[in-house]
Design goal:
Elements lengths: L37 E3 L16 E3 L15 H9 L20 H5 L1
Antiparallel strand pairs: 1-2
Length: 109
């Protein structure tokens, strides 16, 4: 029996900004491939209402070098990823044009 659900190709795949387990250029869990560049919205997340037309910029693991001191448990990716979230005083808008609240309080309550 073939297990098609285990493998697949999504084309085109819009990686946006990855998640806690996958950097945008990851091929599997906690992967940080050197030399693999993808287009993401990490640098300017939700800069347009609802994030529908966010500009794409190149992402590769060289962007994580500045966080090398936090290497345990994928630290460089975790720091980079969390710093891309809208924080206090951000100017981001949701799909209805309302201000996006800081995500940080929701992580701790």
């Amino acid at each position: 029996m073939e297990r098609a659900a285990e493998f697949g190709l999504i084309d085109p795949y819009d990686v946006r900004c990855g998640n806690v387990h996958f950097a945008p250029n990851a091929r599997n869990h906690y992967d940080n491939p050197v030399g693999v560049t993808v287009q993401t919205t990490c640098h300017d997340w939700w800069s347009t209402p609802g994030g529908q037309n966010d500009p794409r910029t190149a992402f590769d693991t060289s962007l994580l070098d500045v966080y090398a001191q936090y290497y345990d448990c994928g630290g460089p990716w975790q720091v980079f990823w969390m710093q891309s979230w809208p924080g206090l005083g951000n100017q981001k808008l949701d799909p209805q044009g309302q201000a996006v609240r800081s995500w940080w309080p929701y992580l701790f309550y």
